[in-house]
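I have been asked to look over a protein record a colleague put together. This is what I was given:
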Amino acid sequence: MTSIFDDIKSAFSKGNNALHQLIFINVVVFAVLIVVRTIMTLSGSGSTFGYLMTFLQLPSNLQLFAYRPWTLFTYFFTHLEFFHIIFNLLNLYWFGMLIREYLGDKRLVNLYVLGGLAGGLFYLLTYNTIPYLQLRADRSFMMGASGSVISVMVAAATLLPNYTFNLILLGPIRIKYIAAVMVLLSISGAVGSNAGGNIAHLGGAILGFFYIQQLQRGTDFGRPVQAVLGFFSGLFKPRSPLKVTYKNPNRPYTAAPNPSMPVSSGMAGHPSQIEIDQILDKISVSGYESLTKEEKQKLFKASQK
């Protein structure tokens, strides 16, 4: 048991580890829910467990959602089926590695969270406005990270459309085609038994595409996500002790830079945001293969921030 807690502490204490943290959270929530469901079912409280799950799943009913607004966030960390979570986490790992390598951990988290929110909002919107879905909205709930995952998938395909994965039996396939097939399957499934999940896929896919398009134009609309996460993480970090410094009144402080000192555009060893944006623009036009060795190194360094 001590080893498990040590693993949890290690997973969240290391920097540049967002992909593993997202996977870890999903696995832990899944494991806890499976254990609780088994215990409650064996004890004859299976219906109570089903009721408790409505506090984690996203309801299509707007009145119920108004009393449980947090479900717009909790639903995309919630799974109850083994193959559901395995499929989602494998895709998150494969495509998340690309986003993490070329855009960094923070933007991977942005895509996951914003994709989940977009998928949930799209689900609520369509189930309360489209007649076909309104007829099926009674007691409809949604859970799973599919919207978040397909957001990461489409974002990777938009950023690196010609990057190839070697698939079993199929060989090398460009990820833009993989993403396109997933979107088409989601469109066709919007009138099936899992309409809500496929609707969430489409919301996440739109978000992933739009996010990269705007990022290449120099706008990162995932900054509010980082601001919120930074606020909550700061609540759990110990404050550093205050430092008292002595200032000589005969040598007043001046903010003017020393002309003999070089001025850096960013952190030492890291490229500036302007350089990164230019490299991303080049990737979108000519593909990753067109980058020089120096540009690839700059992109890698930026991902380590």
About this structure: Strands lie at 58-59, 141-142, 164-167, 171-174. The domain at 2-229 is CATH 1.20.1540.10 (Rhomboid-like fold). The chain is about 65% helix and 5% strand.
